[in-house]
Amino acid sequence: MNANALHPSILRAYDIRGICDETLSPADATAIGRAFAACLAIKSLGNKVVVGRDGRLSSPQLSAALIDGLVDGGAEVTDIGCGPTPMLYFAATHLDADGAIQVTGSHNPPSHNGFKMVMGGKSFFGAEITELGASCAAGVPSQSGGSCETRSVFSEYVTRLLQSADAGDLSVVWDCGNGASGSVTDAVVERLTGQHEVLFSEIDGTFPNHHPNPVDPETLEILRAAVKSKDADLGIGFDGDGDRIGIVDAKGRQVPGDLLTAYLAQDVAKRHPGGTMLLDVKSSQLAVDMLSAAGANAAIWKTGHSHMKKKMAETGSPLAGEMSGHIFIADDYFGFDDAIYVALRILTQMVRSGQSITAFMDSLPDQHATPELRIDCTDDRKFSIMEKLQSVVSQNYEPDAINTIDGVRVTCSNGWWLVRASNTEAALVARAEADSPEALEQLISQIKAALDGAGLGWSFS
Question: How far, in Å, are 5, 32, 63 from residue 27 at the CA level?
Fold first, then answer.
């Protein structure tokens, strides 16, 4: 029956992700493919599956093993090769596939890899991943009818990205970080007006220039320096698989994902007055207020691309965004997180509205907030810590000040703070926002005290 028990640590909330040759092997990939094909059959969704991969050194081997499992499970596979995860999402729609899997480690270190999955046009996550793991452990019989063909959707994807793009005479620096977005970015930039410089577009799974995480301020230093030296209008960075964006404005300021969403909302809300727009639980109150001021019905929701896409479908939301740089646009697009498309929408809005990202940032009130604060905490401990933290908070704050939709978010008279368990890393994530620097220090002290009460020492630096 081809039983293959997966390492429990790789079955994440949004995807499957592990360390190659330690917690994740080609045999695991084959088992995952076979179980995914069986799940499609059980749900009577069809058997057409698109497979893509990022540029990590382990991705070709894992992709081949995954495809072997899918074919053995009776799936008709279309292999679109190496490219960003959004190209896989596009291919699933463009080719009318029943399922889609991207082999990717996203922004994790080079030794990591995994799988992002779509089934029936929806993210495959949560309990579905748990059930897939159980199927792998139990074993799945082989099925006839499987096949594999190779087909490129590269040109169709690039054409769709550029469909309504307008870069005017902007000066832009693009940093692909040697991730999977490189070739697509080169092709897009060749067809844009304006002045463009593309950094590190060669796809290299060792990430020789910097780690591809556009939220980490350190990874943006090269981009920030290039924007300054070129006197550019903005800099754009992508993560390893091209579904998260980072922006540096003309003054070198990092623009977080919640404020990028607020910027885009000023345009999107004109076509969707009163429409629901989503921000994740890490987002600032300033961004929430700006969505409301633009005419949207602003709502806070769970962090995670799968959670966001599901909620967007339920509410008919035209726009959603996360602090982490996942931004989802359903206004004249497909609603999935596509960093290259988001970049083009930002450029187009700058040109057509006359308001640059820099001018937008200049217009905002002073914000006293931390970035995302990563607190090391092992996978086998982080959720128990969060349970203890929730208990500590419930004893020290009024019930109406506590939001537990995703972690623990506490609203105080002078701001708010949050601690939640990362679903992609061995860490907790904290953030705070206040009405003054002094109040921010107080909120950080509250986070420390709550974590101490939950049994996890932490010092802010």
Answer: 10, 9, 11
Q: Is 389 helix (H, G, I), strand (E, B) or coil?
A: helix
What is the CATH superfamily name and number for domain 157-363?
Alpha-D-Glucose-1,6-Bisphosphate, subunit A, domain 3 (3.40.120.10)
* Residues labelled as active-site residues: 106
Q: Is the pTM of this model over 0.90?
A: yes
Structure tokens at 182: 């490189």
pLDDT one-digit tens code per residue, 71-80: 999 999 999 9
How many angstroms from the chain centroid is the CA of residue 8? 22
Fold observed for domain 368-453? TATA-Binding Protein (3.30.310)
The Cα-based distances of 430 to 175, 226, 341, 372, 409 in angstroms read 27, 30, 29, 6, 9
What integer is the mean pLDDT of 433-453?
95
Q: Under the phi-then-psi rule, with left for phi > 0, alpha for psi from -120 to 50, and beta for the rest, what region is 368?
A: beta
Per-domain residue ranges for the chain? 8-152, 157-363, 368-453
pLDDT digit string, tens, across residues 112-126: 999 999 999 999 999
CATH topology classification for 8-152: Alpha-D-Glucose-1,6-Bisphosphate; Chain A, domain 3 (3.40.120)
Cβ count near 109 (within 10 Å): 12
Same fold, 8-152 and 157-363: yes
